[in-house]
Amino acid sequence: MHANEVATMAGPVVEVIVDGTISGQEMDRARAELAEVLRRHGLAGSASLRLTRDAHVAGTSVAQVNLCVAGTAMRCQIHGPGTVVVRLAAERLDRALNRQLAQAPPRWAPDPDRAPLVTIGEERPIVRRKHCVPHRCDPAAAVATMDALDYDAHLFTDLDTGEDAIVYWAGPLGVRMARQRRACPPRDFEHLPLTMNPHPTRTLTESAAALRLCGYGLPFLFFTDAGDGRGRLLYRRYDGDLGLVVATSALPVS
Questions:
Q1: Quick check: 5 pLDDT over 70?
Q2: Which CATH homologous superfamily contains domain 13-101?
Q3: Region at 70 (left for phi over 0; alpha for psi -120 to 50; beta for the rest)
């Protein structure tokens, strides 16, 4: 290298995807704010930010950040006033990166900054279906994924029993686990801040599950599909409609 040459590292790239009316100035500000978080952690890769204006609550937006750090997929999502939602997402990402880069244990407690989506009302439609081959793992690994991806619940295949199962944020210890049928504790149960749901999951149709979730005001519902016997995770979206995670042995060919 010559004396007058300066080695530079490419800065982080943040792609902003918008759904709704969001000004170019807002997009630039959001891009700069998230790029600063990545720079502060020494990350020069790329991230994407999806900003969605909430059509049901005036003045609010949903911010979702997706990135990959050292081979681990990460995601942060928050709902709030449109004027500050990007700052809230940046702060949430900063905390998650602190844990991830320090190789700290995942959190085992609900996040008080994000309340669950609970609304009692009429049945809402399922507008998004995601087919997945659930990762077969123990509950500790499932909690690590739930934390990294900022989920309220995570569908996986239980290593001990081979049943579809979920982990989710719930008291009294912070995380609860539910399987399709067996309620026996997992291995190393005494070393985990985890409780077991003592009830087998209900076998339901999608429509019956949606009716139950909406009628009882649940943020999500884990059930066994009446057709194929596999686990399903039905969840409420910020727009009030529903999403469904479908466990399968092989992804459908598109």
A1: no
A2: Ribosome hibernation promotion factor-like (3.30.160.100)
A3: left
Contacts of 75-79 spanning 24+ positions with Cβ under 8 A = 75/148, 75/149, 75/150, 75/151, 76/150, 77/150, 78/113, 78/114, 79/54, 79/114, 79/238
Q: Mean pLDDT throughout 55-83?
A: 88
Beta-strand ranges (E) seen in the chain are 13-19, 46-53, 60-69, 72-81, 126-132, 136-137, 153-158, 164-170, 174-179, 194-196, 203-204, 220-225, 231-236, 242-247
Residue 55 scores a pLDDT above 90:
no
How many other C-beta atoms can be found within 10 angstroms of the C-beta atom of residue 203? 14
pTM to 2 decimals? 0.86
Assigned fold of 126-247: SHC Adaptor Protein (3.30.505)
One fold for 13-101 and 126-247: no
| Cis peptide upstream of residue 172 (ω within 30 degrees of 0) | yes
Extents of the domains making up the chain: 13-101, 126-247
